[in-house]
């Protein structure tokens, strides 16, 4: 007859796991002095939230760099075994998102785990907020038991407070790990900038942004993260000149009057009067002040000749470092031939010395 009685070691591991999960501020340093084989067993047994608390409370000491790893969140070096922790985070990532594991190669699997977790939280919140009857705060949207169970919360009643089930808890706890996010239009609200204040966003993908209220909320978020953002992409948006001017003005870093955006895209979107749409002044200023700008993509927007002509004319007169320019799937067939003819004749366009296109190596006009 098989003996199902748990061993003393397994009971101790379970107790330590419970402590790490539910007593975030009372983690004993004695845990980190366990023998290596017991510590490794503990690490591989912890759910994500408990492993995060274990990782967060690693004692700090000032020893040789080869024995310690660097913690980006605290700017300190942590005691060894981090290679075991990174492997543990990779295992947890694979268990939860097996289809994504081969698509990314992060150096920090904990960061990848919580960033992807937070993305799942925002995706779930967007589904709730899109329901016409929703009239509450985005921050108070409750996460499903499925999401909570994945990180170690078994249902909504494990803790004395149910705050851990709300979106704001997950943003507060895990926001510091998120640098790349995708947000739907319903999440482009003023309160979202408060939810993401712990983040250092580098990349944002925005979809279906249409109303002035959504643009205003988005601009607040962009201003908040203007010093860290390097990539902006808009998909399925309704774009006007006011939209472009507001977005471009929000990413400018006031202290230096420039921006750090390297990649800017508006694709599959509806421009108001696309065939006559010319460059807004805010976008011209954005191009002129973008010393780091590397790629521009305006594909599948039904742009006409005026837009393409104005864009090229502007790029020929500024000193940015555009390497990729994509104007594909627009209404500009035959435009480049006409542009070259008028440019070579010097009429009626007048250009300075073009610097911007010297680094261009990808040009897509089809």
C-alpha Rg, in Å?
Answer: 25 Å
| Helix/strand order | HHHEEHHHHEHEHEEHEEHEHEHE
CATH architecture of the largest domain: Alpha-Beta Horseshoe
Number of helices: 13
Provide the β-strand percentage band.
5-15%
Defining traits:
7-stranded parallel β-sheet, Leucine-rich repeat, LRR (right-handed beta-alpha superhelix), 366 residues, elongated, alpha/beta, two-stranded antiparallel ribbon
Short synopsis of the structure:
By secondary structure, the protein is of the alpha/beta class. It is built from 13 helices and 11 strands. The protein has 2 domains: 89 residues, no CATH class; 186 residues, Leucine-rich repeat, LRR (right-handed beta-alpha superhelix) (Alpha-Beta Horseshoe), CATH 3.80.10.10.
SSE topology:
Layout: H1 8-22, H2 36-45, H3 48-56, E1 68-71, E2 76-79, H4 82-96, H5 109-129, H6 145-151, H7 167-174, E3 180-184, H8 190-195, E4 203-207, H9 212-224, E5 231-235, E6 238-239, H10 241-250, E7 263-267, E8 270-271, H11 281-288, E9 295-297, H12 305-315, E10 324-326, H13 335-345, E11 362-364
Parallel strand pairs: 3-4, 4-5, 5-7, 6-8, 7-9, 9-10, 10-11
Antiparallel strand pairs: 1-2
Helix pairs in contact: 1-2, 1-3, 4-5, 5-7, 9-10, 10-11
